[in-house]
Specification:
Strand content: under 5%
Oligomer: single chain
Structural class: mainly alpha
Largest sheet: none
CATH superfamily: YheA/YmcA-like
Number of domains: 1
Number of helices: 5
Helix content: over 70%
Radius of gyration: 20 Å
Number of strands: 0
Order of helices and strands: HHHHH
CATH architecture: Up-down Bundle
Shape: extended
Length: about 120
């Protein structure tokens, strides 16, 4: 059991030092320092949360509310820094999915490190 926990800690450390996570953190810091981009993200999150709360409360969502959210989404798509953050998060998420996939394959016996022939499209090995 201790060996498994150590491997998990080593994996966590490797992920923490990965280029993908470092890039996400760097860009998130830049985003927080950029008043325009950060303000846009905050407005979008508030508008989306407001719509979700209205839906949960059984209230009708007006076309104006939906339009406001769409405009904010478009503004976010047009912001280069926000797009960089989202792209970096996608790359990190892809890394994590590959890690989960590789672990699941190992658990199910589908792909072992010793037997992998280098053609595993899921884990990239």
């Amino acid at each position: 059991r201790d060996a498994i926990i150590k491997l998990a800690m080593d994996l966590g450390s490797s992920i923490a030092e990965s280029d993908e996570l470092m890039e996400v953190k760097k860009l998130q810091d830049q985003l927080q320092a950029d008043e325009t981009a950060f303000g846009l993200v905050m407005k979008y999150q508030a508008a989306r949360m407001n719509l979700e709360n209205q839906q949960r409360a059984g209230q009708n969502i007006t076309p104006q509310d939906e339009n406001h959210l769409s405009i904010l989404e478009q503004q976010m798509q047009n912001n280069a820094l926000i797009q960089q953050v989202m792209d970096a998060q996608d790359r990190f998420n892809n890394l994590m999915q590959a890690v989960y996939y590789a672990m699941n394959q190992s658990l199910s016996g589908g792909c072992s490190p010793d037997g992998c022939g280098g053609s595993c499209s899921g884990c990239g090995m």
